[in-house]
Amino acid sequence: MVLIDTAASMIFADCSSSSSTARLLLFNTTKLQKYPDNISLFRRSNSLQFGISSRSSSRTIITHCSSPSTSAIQINNETFAKVIDGKRVAKDIREEIAVEISRMQEEIGIVPGLAVILVGDRKDSATYVRNKKKACDTVGINSYEVHLAEDSTEEEVLNHISKFNDDPSVHGILVQLPLPSHMNEQNILNAVCIEKDVDGFHPLNIGRLAMRGREPLFVPCTPKGCIELLHRYDIPIKGKRAVVIGRSNIVGMPAALLLQREDATVSIVHSRTKNPEEITSQADIIISAVGQPNMVRGSWVKPGAVLIDVGINPVEDPESPRGYRLVGDICYEEASKVASAITPVPGGVGPMTIAMLLSNTLLSAKRINNLRMPAENIV
Ligand code: NDP
To answer: In this predicted model, what pLDDT tens digit does every residue of 8-67 receive, in sequence order?
Structure first.
């Protein structure tokens, strides 16, 4: 297996063998009533090899899972791995939101509005913004977009934020990241008023998330989506050992705070963690948000653990029409033989992120208009 293209973090990664304990744990099927047809309750007979797990503290990694030098042992393995279907859950959530929005419009004539500010010409950012707009359309949220040139000034961005802060038809403001390097991201994110911070990135929201007895107005969308998946599949969190891999402000750190709020015992693994597999292999729940393809091997996973894979990594694939495909941080093929439940990539956490953005925007419109709030306003 070969490493390619460091600049774009485009990695050729294979993950075709290995794993550690191929012990079988039955997933508690009584927990699966909400999404019964999601359950991939399948029986497989596999021959597994113990593999080499490789890791790197840089953005690039050679993930060489089918090492001929590994000591091969054959294990007849039956698995009951369950696929946590984020696409389907996100669709359900969008439908629920659409119903609420149409009721809101009928009863008080208010339509939630989301404003998105995009600076520059990054294609990926433009795609994300387009997808967000499309998602807003499907549920009946009004979307407002400002697209500024790459060489715009910070002041211009701040002016637009200020206008949206004052605009009563806008309930959520989102600044698409990353911003051009000449802009101060912190200044810009801090300018979004906390009541419209549907991304949940404002330090006040994060601060409240971290404090006992305080409630954030919004929770960042991706970690909120991870927890919502666990809830919708009735996967218990309280008292469980959870490991979050990655500690970024937008995913890893808030995911760890959320798990802690749900009474899990939480460890965080990051690029300087020694022997991460020793920590992950004790976890009942792993949320991985790293950006390293197939880094989490089957041998890193405790039998029966629940795995939430946030990572989205393009890996070279000559057979794909695009020349690449997307994989997660978790080596799905191996880990799904050990875990009790796992999110796929794509189709796991990704669709949930946008669903949570819509949910936060609806939440904001309700709060601003003093409508009845759900009993728990975070996930
Ligand atoms: P960042 O690059 O901001 O953070 C990555 C984190 O991973 C850092 O905390 C870093 O540690 C840690 N890390 C890096 N290498 C290793 C390693 N070898 N072992 C352990 N930890 C490591 O990424 P993001 O949090 O923004 O995104 C993470 C992944 O999630 C990406 O693939 C991204 O595309 C995806 N993503 C998916 C979303 C979705 O909707 N599904 C939304 C957002 C992101 P350190 O702090 O020490 O540097």
So the answer is: 334 444 554 333 322 222 223 333 445 654 433 332 223 222 222 333 333 333 333 433
Residue to mutate, 251, 279, 357, ligand 1, most ligand atoms under 8 Å from C-beta: 251
CA 329 to ligand 1 centroid distance, Å: 9
CATH code at position 199: 3.40.50.10860
Distances (CA, A) of 22 to 44, 131, 140, 287, 306: 12, 39, 47, 21, 15
> What total of structural domains would you count in the chain?
3
CA–centroid distance, 270 to ligand 1, in Å, is 9
CA distances from 137 to 111, 130, 143, 149, 159 (A): 12, 11, 8, 25, 26
Structure tokens at 126: 């433009």
With respect to residue 239, please indicate whether it lies within any of the assigned structural domains.
Answer: yes
Q: Please enumerate in sequence order all residues whose Cβ is within 8 A of that of 272, keeping only pairs 6 or more positions apart, or say none.
A: 57
Q: Please state the pTM of the whole predicted model.
A: 0.84
Q: Is 43 helix (H, G, I), strand (E, B) or coil?
A: coil
131 with 179, same domain? yes
- What's the mean pLDDT when you consider all of the chain? 83
pLDDT less than 70: residues of the chain: 1-79, 372-379
229 in a structural domain:
no
* Closest-CA residue to 144 (of 124, 123, 163): 163
Place of tokens 């999404």: 35
304 Ramachandran zone, left/alpha/beta (phi>0; psi -120 to 50): left
Q: Model confidence over 292-326: pLDDT tens digits?
A: 999 999 999 999 999 999 999 999 999 999 999 99
- Which tokens in the block code for residue 161? 């934020």
Atom nearest to 345 CA in ligand 1: 41
Cα–Cα distance for residue pair 175/119, rounded to 1 Å: 8
**Which residue type sits at 205?**
N
| Beta strand spans in 64-182 (E) | 82-83, 113-119, 142-148, 172-175
Distance from C-alpha of 239 to C-alpha of 259, rounded to nearest angstrom: 10
Q: Is the peptide bond before 178 cis (omega within 30 degrees of 0)?
A: yes
